[in-house]
Design a protein that fits this description.
The protein is an alpha/beta fold and 228 residues long. 39% of the residues lie in helices and 11% in strands. The chain is built from 8 helices and 6 strands; from the N terminus they run βαααααβαβαβαββ. It has a 6-stranded parallel sheet with strand order 3-2-1-4-5-6, sandwiched between helices. Strand 4, helix 8 and strand 5 form a beta-alpha-beta unit. Helix 1 packs across helix 2. The termini are close together.
């Protein structure tokens, strides 16, 4: 059994469906960090004929005001707000899209165990398409859902009741894994049965020190296979 030496972090007997975040859980968040902190400021500076420093100063308050909202994740919002084709800009750096260590091993193990695998992501469909083109992630999954289909990001309390009702799942029998603590808190508060936090969403940075909020913490998904 893969990772049999690791302590069991999930009660697999109480899991009927596995819900997974994408960026920072399955895929390396380093791609997104590079895009928003390096590539977009550089390209916006070119577009607006300003310095990169001026570009960063312009973008910073917009980032701050939209963080945690659906607009933060929305390619169409950013394209309209900045007057640029954000999806095309994302494709310029698509070669940086990569799996996180242990993610494919985890997907294979859960697949072999016969547990349904669902992607539940805040990524906009246009961002999602870029990631799927690079990774073939969809071939590992049974279903995919973006929060844009429901009109609320996953960290919003409105998301989870709508999601569970639409997908007709038993929340207490679901396992949900994400790197965003605000999202995890919303899911746990609603009643998702088991929630797990990913502490190392970016491969080029060390694991984050996370407070114990009552859920297991892993650096990579393959740690969850113990006991499956």
């Amino acid at each position: 059994m893969i990772n049999e030496y690791l302590p069991q972090k999930v009660d697999w007997d109480r899991v009927d469906v596995v819900l997974l975040d994408m960026d920072g859980t399955l895929l390396d968040l380093a791609y997104d960090t590079h895009f928003w902190t390096e590539h977009l400021p550089y390209r916006y500076a070119q577009h607006s004929e300003i310095t990169i420093e001026e570009s960063r100063e312009f973008l910073a308050p917009i980032f701050e005001n939209t963080y945690g909202t659906l607009d933060w994740y929305c390619v169409d919002y950013w394209s309209s707000r900045l007057g640029m084709d954000i999806q095309s800009l994302k494709r310029e750096t698509a070669h940086r899209v990569a799996w996180l260590a242990g993610a494919q091993t985890f997907l294979s193990g859960v697949r072999q165990a016969g547990k349904p695998l669902w992607l539940v992501t805040n990524a906009h469909p246009k961002s999602l398409s870029v990631k799927l083109e690079q990774t073939g992630l969809d071939s590992h999954l049974d279903q995919m859902m973006t929060s844009h289909e429901l009109g609320y990001p996953k960290e919003d309390a409105h998301f989870w009741p709508l999601f569970v009702e639409q997908q007709a799942i038993a929340p207490e029998r679901a396992l949900f894994v994400d790197d965003n603590l605000n999202v995890l808190k919303a899911a746990k508060t609603f009643g998702i049965g088991q929630c797990v936090a990913v502490s190392r969403p970016e491969s080029n940075r060390p694991a984050r020190v996370l407070e114990d909020d009552g859920w297991p913490i892993v650096e990579e998904l393959s740690e969850l296979l113990a006991g499956l």
